[in-house]
Amino acid sequence: MTLKDTSTPASARLCAAAALSAVLAGGCAGGVSSLAAAPELTPIQNPAAASGDQRVSMPLPAPRAEPASPNSLWRSGARSFFDDQRATQIGDILTVNIEIADSAQVNNSTQRARNGSETGGVSAFLGLNDKLNGVLPGTPGLDPAVSFNSTSSASGSGSVNRAETVRMKVAAVITDRLPNGNLVIGGSQEVRINAELRELFVTGVIRPQDIGADNTIPYSKIAEARISYGGRGDISSAQRARYGQRVYDKVSPF
C-alpha cells in the first residue's frame, strides 16, 4: 500500500507567501497614502448654483434707444477705451474706500449746590391767637405757623476716550438718481470664516464728480453715509452677554 503525500510543495508555499505579502504591502501602502493625501477639490459645477435658486434683482436704468450709425466703426453708447468708465447710471457698480481713523477724548465735570428756607405765620387770625393762649397751657401761638428748610447738592463727572480704525473696500451699486443729478448708492459684503460671518453695509448719496478716474470714491465724500461693520457667529455670541443678564440690566433700578 502506497501513501500519497498531500502536503503542499515548498515552491507553492513560497508563491502563496509572496502573493500574500504583495497584497498586504499594497493595502498598507494604499491606506497610508490615503491618510496622508490632501483633501480632494470639489468638481467644477455651474456657478449659478453658488448664488442659490433665488433670482437676483438689481436696479436697472431705463431702456433707451441708441441712434444707428451706419457708416461708423463704433456703436453709439458702446463702452470703449475712449469712453468714461465711471459709474453714472442706475445699476452701475463703483468701489467705496472706507478708511476710518477717528479718535475722540472728552472730559466733563459738573457740581451743583442749592440751599433754601421758607417761614410763614399768622400774627393774629380773627383773635384766635388770644383764645388759644387762654385754652392751652404755656404760650402757644400761630406765629410762626409754617417753616420749611431744604438743601440739595449734586455732582457728576464723565469722560470719553474712543479710537476707531477701519480700513476696507466694498463694491456698491447705484440704486437711484436724484433730480439734481446726485446718485444714491448701496452695497453689502459678507465674508464667512469657519463659524463666524462678517458683514459690511454701506449706503448714502454721492455726487458724480466725486467719483475718481478709477471708479472709486472715498467714504468721506458720501452724504448721509450709513456704514455698518459687524459679525454674527460663535465668536460674537461668546462676547455678548446672556439673555438673562441683559434682561436684568434693563429692569434693575440699581
Describe the overall structure.
- By secondary structure, the protein is of the alpha+beta class.
- Among the domains are: 93-105 and 164-251, no CATH class; 107-159, no CATH class.
- It is built from four helices and six strands; from the N terminus they run αβαβββββαα.
- It has a six-stranded mixed β-sheet with strand order 5-1-2-3-4-6.
- It starts with 9 loop residues before the first helix and ends with a helix.
- The mean pLDDT is 76.
Topology overview:
Layout (H helix, E strand, L loop, with lengths): L9 H27 L56 E28 L7 H8 L10 E32 L5 E11 L2 E11 L9 E3 L4 E11 H6 L3 H9 L3
Parallel strand pairs: 1-5
Antiparallel strand pairs: 1-2, 2-3, 3-4, 4-6
Tally of contiguous helical segments: 4
Rounded to the nearest angstrom, the distance between the terminal CA atoms is 112 Å
Indicate the low-confidence ranges by residue numbers: none
Give the % helix: 10-25%
What are the secondary-structure elements, in order, as H or E?
Answer: HEHEEEEEHH
Classify the secondary structure makeup into a structural class: alpha+beta
Strand content: 35-45%
Please tag this protein with its features.
4 helices, 254 residues, single chain, alpha+beta, six-stranded mixed beta sheet
Summarize the structure.
This protein is 20% helix and 38% strand.
